Structure formats: C-alpha cells, structure tokens
Amino acid sequence: MQLDMLTYLMNLPTLLKYILIGTVVYAAFVLAKQKYDEYLFLENYTLLEDKNFEQHLVERGIDTDSTVNGRIANVDARKVKSLLLNDKDIKSLKGIASFKNLAHLYCVSNQLQKLDISSNDALVSLYCHRNKLTELDVSKNLELTHLECSANQIEEIDVSANTSLELLGVGANPIKKLDLSTNKTLEKLWVGKTQIERLDISGNQNITTLYCRQGTLREIVLPKDSSQLKALYCDGNRIKELNLASLSLLENLQCFGNELKSLDLSANLNLKELDCSENKLRRLDLINMRRLKRMSCDKNEIVELKLNGCSKLEYISCEFNKIDEIDLSTNMALVTLNCRFNLLKELNIDANHKLSALDFMNNQLDKINLSECPRLHIISGVGNRLEWVNLSNVEAKGIVKLTENSAHLKICVTEHSKNTRLKWRIDPSAQFVLDCSGYGE
Hints:
Mean pLDDT: 89
Radius of gyration: 36 Å
Distance between the termini: 128 Å
Low-confidence stretches: none
Number of helices: 4
Helix content: 10-25%
Shape: elongated
Order of helices and strands: HHEHEHEEEEEEEEEEEEEEEEEEEEEEEE
Number of strands: 26
Strand order of the largest sheet: 3-4-5-6-7-8-10-12-13-14-16-18-19-20-22-24
C-alpha cells in the first residue's frame, strides 16, 4: 500500500508535488509551533483552576495582568513569600506549586479537598484547618515549623520528616495514631477531638502547651524529666491516671471529665489554675500551692479538701461533693466561694475579707457569720438549717437568698442596710435584729 502511494505521488505533476510537500511541511511547522508555544506558556505561566483563588491574587496585586483569566505569570508567583487566603470559599489551590518561594500559607476555612504542597519546599508555616482535606503529605516540607491542619477529615499524618516543627495542630480529625518521636523541637501541640487512645510525648521535653481535650484518650505518656510543659488541657477523655511528677513548671491543669480516682500535685507547686471536676476523686491535697488562683473540683466524691497555704487563691468551686469541713483561714485573697451541695455543718470565713460572692446552698449549716466580709454582694444559702445569720457590716446590694419557710431564722443587720435588704430574697417570717450579741448561742 505504501509503495502504491509512493508510486502515485511520483507520478503527480511537479507543481502539485510541491504544493503537497509544502502543505505537509507547513502542518509540521504549525504543530511544532504549538508545542513550542505550550512549552513557552508552561515555562512562563501557571494555570489556576479556582476563580476565587485568582481573584484574591488580582486584588492583592500579585497577578500583575489584573485579569481573572485562569493563569498567573510564573515570575509573579515566584515573588510571593506569604499568602493569606482564609475564608475565600476556595475549592482548589491547583497552581500553588509554582509559588516556589512561598514560606507562609494561610488557607483556613475554605472548601479544599486536596492540597499538594510537595513542590513548596520553602514552606515554613502552613495553616489549613477547617477544610475538607482527607490527606496531607508534608514529607517534602522539611523547613516547616508551624503546621495547623485541625478540623479536616485526615485519618493519618506523618510528621517524622518535619524535625523543625514547633507547633502542630491535628485536632478534630479521625486520627488514631501520632508518632512524635522525631519532633524534638515541638512546643505547642493540639490533638483534641481525635481517636487517639495513647499519646506518647515522653521524648518531647520542649512542649509547653498540650491540648488533647474531648477525645478518646486513655493514657498520656509524659516526659520523665526536664519537661517544659506549663499548660495541660486533657479534659473530656477516659484517663484513669496522670503522672505529673516531672511537670514542675506546670501552671494550668484542666483534667475535668475523666476517670481519675487520685491526683498527686505535690510536684506542681507553680500551679495557677486547676479544674479537676467530674472525676472520681475522694481527696484533694493543695497544701502550699502559693501561686494557685483558681480551683474547681466539682462533682467528685471528695471527703477531704486541703487548701492550707494557698495564699493567692481567689476562686474556689467544690460543689456536689461530700465535704463536711473546710479550712479557709489561710485563703485571704478569696473572692468567690461555691461550696453548695456538700455536708458542711460549719463554715468559717472570718479571714476572707475580700469575699464578694458566696454560695453555700444545700449543706447542713444552722448558723453563719458573714460580718467579716463587708464586700459580699451575692449570697446564696437556701437548703440549710439556718437559725442565725450575722450580716452586720455587710451591704449585700446584690442577690441574697438565705432560707425558705423558716420562722426561727434571725438575721443580724446594721441600721444602714435597712433599704438594701428590701431586695433580699428571704422568708417574710425571718426576724431582723440589730443586736448580734446572741450569735451562736
């Protein structure tokens, strides 16, 4: 067949031969030019798939042709070191590979399902949380120090190559395991709302802040010594034991909503804030926590609470426990005390002159002296057996609820509080007296 065609061509008139050959040569030239133009285009331009992405580049003067036309000059892309693309309804960042010098990428709260940053080896910070990513490969981004990819749909992430990481956020993802053995420089870690059951940070002594709240954690393996951890948020998990012996710098501990039966804080004397509510604790020893300012231990089974020496303690909430006595004599900075629903028969607050809010509802008190707390403006004591309350020297201009249906209650007040007490919620049968000499008799 080829020979027949060749014979046919050879027999054509000379002019026609030249025309045919010229046509073939021209077609080849056009095809070659197209290929060359494509090559030049790809060398000089990058295709952009998402109009919202390109619109931002135009608005910021990054895309210098000032037109949303599906492309950006590579020379423009290479000038960019930082991109702020938060809340732009972007569905694709195809073309990001040409931003070779990009160091900081913020694309929070978009509609991204894929993000290929394998060519962005200059990347230092990546914030891509609140998207729809199912995977994220950061193995080529060796310069990364900040990676925040929380609130996506990522099931696995490998950060073993990212040895310079200082901040890592992978929370609110269905991640079950996380290997941090190579991330020695890590300082802040967010792993809350994941499916991780065992978190090992024993080799991460430089972590100062750990958020691992509201997940399925059963165990946290903390560093054995020299830990820099100052804030630990592990509330809302299934943790039965916390060994905090190495955390001498710890300032904030939020471990409420777990299954703790004991909590040893003897090594954590720098603690400033503690919430260990909703566990199974029976005793809590906070003696000589001289920096502690706020403490909550609600809804446990506590029968013994020791607060001696907590001289800076301003807020105490210990409601719904089984406490029958409490010593507040050294807590002179106390401003708020909530001890309702316990078994208290006595409550001495004579040393707590700064107290402004007091709730001792549903205990077993028959008397209470509030006269040493002139700043009190919120008082709630319903559900006790009160027969005598000393409110002399107390203005109490806020809410006062003391008892219900008690014909035996005597309340000692001062003459100048006459107008103020009209707002108090006290049973009409209660007697107001000005002579407090009979208090406690």
